[in-house]
Amino acid sequence: MTHHINRRGLLKASGAMALLSGLASPAILRAQTPAIKVGVLEPLTGNLAYNGNQCAAGARFAAEAINAAGGIKSMGGAPIELVIVDAESRPEVAAAAVDTLAEAGVCAFTGASASALGLASSQAAAKYDLAQVFSVGTAEAIVERGLPNVFRFTPGVTKITAVALENLGLLNEAAGKPVKTAAIVHEDGPFGSQLAGIVETELPKLGIEIVEKIAHPTPHRDFNNIALRVKASKADILIPTNYINEYTLMTRALQQQRVELMAIYSILGGAASNIKFVRENNDIAQYVIDCNHWYDPNKEASKALAASAAGAGIDMTYDVMVAYATIQVIADALERSGSADRKAMIEALAASDYDGSIMPYGPTKFVNGDNVNSRPVNLQVRGDKIEVIFPKEYATIEPVFPRPAQG
Amino acid sequence: MMRFASLGQAALVALVVVYLLAVYLLPSQVWMGFTINALAMSIVALSWNITGGFGGMASFGHAAMYGTGAYASAVLQVQFGVNAWVAFAAGIAAGALMGAFIGALAFRYGVKGSYFALVTLAFAEVLRICASAFEITGAGRGLQLTLQPGVATLQFNNDRVLTYTLLLGIVALVMALTAWLKYSRFGAYLVAVRENEDAARALGIDTYRVKVTAMAISGAFGGLAGAVYLQLWLFIDSSVVYGVSISVTALIGPIIGGAGTVWGPLVGTLGLHLLGEGAKTALHGAPGLNFVLYALVLIAALRFLPQGLMGLAARIGVLGRKGGDDA
């Protein structure tokens, strides 16, 4: 007996199979462990959209890696499902977006790229007993309100500035103290102003005099006058604190105006630790130093993340790294609590001693919501790479300070 | 007494009222959250409506009054430890003073029309830079109120329903004052100035005084909106309260809803927020596209609804020749 497959027969068979698979799939779904929802609240639009989208990408990579590794094992291998909401770069929208997360049934969430957004969202989340693990939130006010649902995994502005200045002192000391004066250029928002204020107070203690301090708004486009003021100040080094676009334009203007500096030493510099800046402005970027959030590039998970980001065409910025790490922290809390209950998550996070994240931190220890074992890293642009120069145990290259004369 | 020009207007207002009451019953907190935002923004829209709607003095810088109210209240509470209620009242007064100051300065030199709009924009921008420069205003770091929920601190963040109810009360009060102003002698003066300032002056109206008073009243409402924002979110910085987006929000609501009407600013602001939220839900997963849809509807509304939604509604079911006026 022979069987002939004609078009009508094929259609019938396909239809039957589709029907069968449709009937069968609910049974398969029922057998699967339900996904655990984790929120990602980031500014996907507005003036912080670049950072927010990078963070969202980092969170996605983390969820994919955790799910690929078998999900949350203490909960029967439940996969993590991200619920991503847009804070639109405005505090009141960030707060309202928490309602969406709470109603979606998330067990905790990460966010929100800027302190102003995080302050509003964590305050709103407190009403739901919903934990927020801060990806980036440098303002100290975040952990000074006594909110039990706040967990800042990454370092705040005080710690970052202290570490940055300590490392600057070490570099200057090792080079024979060539740096005597500094100029500060900072954006005039909460982030830049607070940081510049601390630097202004602390830098003279290292024997470095501040000869110029210039604030600029965000956005700001023409940096020629600022570059000329820095040049006129005859500062040995420049300490900038601003966002990526302004940082790029500022360094271009410094080059155009032939400003001679021993170093550009950024603290949370918008572009100095951004590979896009290095790629597109390679000559200007050389030897720029930044103190910022960064991962430990030697860890296996870090290498896997770098490969995933490269595969997706996404630049490896600190936003990607910190968001990835915060999802790891949340996953660890889920693993230990064995429950997606919000209060249980707050308890699990408060008791966290997780040391498996991609960040170069010791075991997590939240004291009043602040991870006391977090720390920033010093980076230097060398060639087409961003290399770690401090802390020494994670360093991938020896620092060059002062930088070779330009020309 | 509130009168409606048409059944359409009455129906539109009824729809808004039903929605605002339905928020209490909706199981979703999302609706309450975004309606709280919409109500908070509608106060600054009502503020713009006094000068831009009734007085014909379109401002592009209502953030000047809004931010001044917020900063005055925040500085008093954070830097001087003043009671929140007193600081709240001081925020309203500071907004009124700022409005009167801008008005007095601009109108003294006969600035009007688009030049007036640009002057207000410049004031808001100057104030933004000042707020980000001086230590007393947080010097760019912004000012953060200590989280202490309670009546004494005017912080009701823990009780969503109470927050919503209080906001509804504030909006209702501002609208009642707007309605009173509209039907008062002063309101008639203001409309006369809008329609023909020279003719109004010829009739004996002190147009300078009327305009400066309108700016002061508008400033008081703007200051109130800023102080409300502070109490809701407990944090302000210069770009949040003096930013251009506040000035744009202030004028778009009345223009879409119907400038120079009592209900227009609320209808417009609420409608735009609903549109934005709807677009966000419909285009979930494509952040930013909701703003594109929002902009398209805005352009269409500006092109086809010169009198706003209240104007459109006024053409539906007109209540006879003497039925009423734009509510």
Automatic annotation (TrEMBL), chain A:
Biological-process GO terms, alphabetical: amino acid transport
Top-rank taxon, per record: Bacteria
Keyword Transport attached: yes
Keyword Ion transport among record annotations: no
InterPro entries: BCAA_transport, Leu-bd, Leu_Ile_Val-bd, Peripla_BP_I, TAT_signal
Keyword annotations of the record: Amino-acid transport, Signal, Transport
Domain Leucine-binding protein: 36-379
PROSITE patterns: TAT
Family per similarity comment: Belongs to the leucine-binding protein family.
Protein name: Amino acid/amide ABC transporter substrate-binding protein, HAAT family
Source species of the chain: Paracoccus solventivorans
TrEMBL record, chain B:
Name of the protein this chain belongs to: Amino acid/amide ABC transporter membrane protein 2, HAAT family
Matches recorded under InterPro entries: ABC_transp_permease, LivM-like
Keyword terms, alphabetized: Cell membrane, Membrane, Transmembrane, Transmembrane helix
Transmembrane segments: 30-51, 63-80, 86-107, 161-181, 212-236, 242-275, 287-305
Recorded GO CC terms: plasma membrane
Topological relation to the membrane, as annotated: Multi-pass membrane protein
Localization per record: Cell membrane
Native source organism of the sequence: Paracoccus solventivorans
GO MF entry, a single one: branched-chain amino acid transmembrane transporter activity
